[in-house]
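Re: the pair you flagged

First of the two:
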Amino acid sequence: MKKKPKLIIFDLDGTLIDSARDLAAAVNEMRRHFGLPPLDVATITGYVGNGVRLLVSRALQGTTINVDDALRIQAPIYRAHIVDETTLYPGVAEGLRRLRDQGHILAVATNKPAEACDLILEHFGIRNLFVSVLAGGRFPVLKPEPDMILDVMATAGMPADDTWVVGDNYTDLESARRAGVRSLFVTYGYGEPGNEKPTLTCRSFGEVMDQF
């Protein structure tokens, strides 16, 4: 029996891609520009999830450096090295294609800047699998506001009962809850669920696939 199609909205960093080392390298190069010592990858990874401005701000806490000045340094560095070490998590490429071929509607809703998001999705050859890609700068508000999720639902013409948000951070789970849709938390990413209670929890992308 054919399964009913679902709208599955994915986060990007920590959900579809492991970008921790490239993000950390760009942040540390920005810090070096300002004469600051490097931070370890785990520390920087813990700052990911609320958009690049907060990432950079957190990486500069305790200093008086202007965040806008730091962003002007960090952004081109990251863009030039955006897929040096970034990879898809195991099973993502084939899994997304299988979901699409099964009739599910796929989308991305990420707080990552739109240009970086597009470059990565195109590099890995998966951009065409998504009916909608919403990202920072392309959409006026970021997760955990529910607006991205609601916009994707409207674009896809799918109701809340048939919509899922898949992500690795409380921002994804909260945006899903506030949009009235189900959520799936992946434990292999960078974030934490916080006080949110996901509908399901998975330890790998293979487990994600098994839910649909």
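Second of the two:
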Amino acid sequence: MRMLLSGYHNPHFETLTEYTEAAITELGVHLTVFDDRDFLLPGTVRTLCGPLQRWDAARLNRRLVALASAHRPDVCLVQGGHRISAVSVEAMKRMGIVTVLWTIDAPGSSGLPFDTARLYDVVCCGGTEAVELFAAAGMPHAQWLPFACAPGRHATTVLNDDEKHTYASDVCFVGSYYPNRARWLEPLADMNLVIRGPGWGQLDGRSALKGVARDEQVVPSEWLKLYAAAKIILAIHYQDGVSPCHQASPKVFEAMACGGFLLSDDQRDVTTLFKEGEHLAVFRNAHDLRGKIAYYLSRSDERARIAGQGHREAITNHTYVRRMERLLSMVRTVQTRGRG
């Protein structure tokens, strides 16, 4: 099988796109890659001038269609989908290419590509909230395909003595600043807490987290060490209070694959995929969060047992290879139906 993958390559560190590419290759699929943010003009210029934005977006889409025409893949997998036009999807379908959309962002952060989604042969969603929103919009064929881990890249890291001292924490949170995350973390400021991620400079100057949170982009080599040195890893999902978000973030799977003990908010997709008390712990309110931290800090054996079981579950059933196997099965169903 031949696949064309359209996704974003962050120039600073690897992300879901690279993990997906590696999994597809591992499955023996011949892969061609297209960067869907390879615009000619800088974003600042495109934002200020609508005609230039449309011109550059059309140019980008013509390049995708030309690549598909040249390589003639069996399937085109589009991650996100916001920058790929209906014209491009329809052009690839006319070539006999099975088109697959895999939505990535939570609906509230960037919206869902409703206009083009209905054109794809297969629609997969990183969170169940997107499945429900697509169904409400008349697309009941959307299916849940959660994120995952890449065991070759997400694994237990052995630290030397200096690193243990530098990265040690009782509680660690790695992720971007959002107001809801700050609200959860504020009451924990008096603990041995580490917070790393972009955007934390937005904290109010009076915030108790000002001396705790570091505003920085955290590359995988760094957060692997933070996770290895932490007794408890927190997962707090994006919520804007308006748009639904139920998806399990990549950090959930990655923390478990690293062998860390995960304490997550009560996120629907997380508790569907993993068992509380067996693979991870879950908190439901501020009092419960502080209580669970105190409880598990005093019970290292129980933390180790849950972390070990979570690790085995993640690297066995929740890898990108597993996800791509399922996606390819969906593609084969479409191909069989077409031949029938």
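The first strand starts at residue 2 and ends at 7.

-B.
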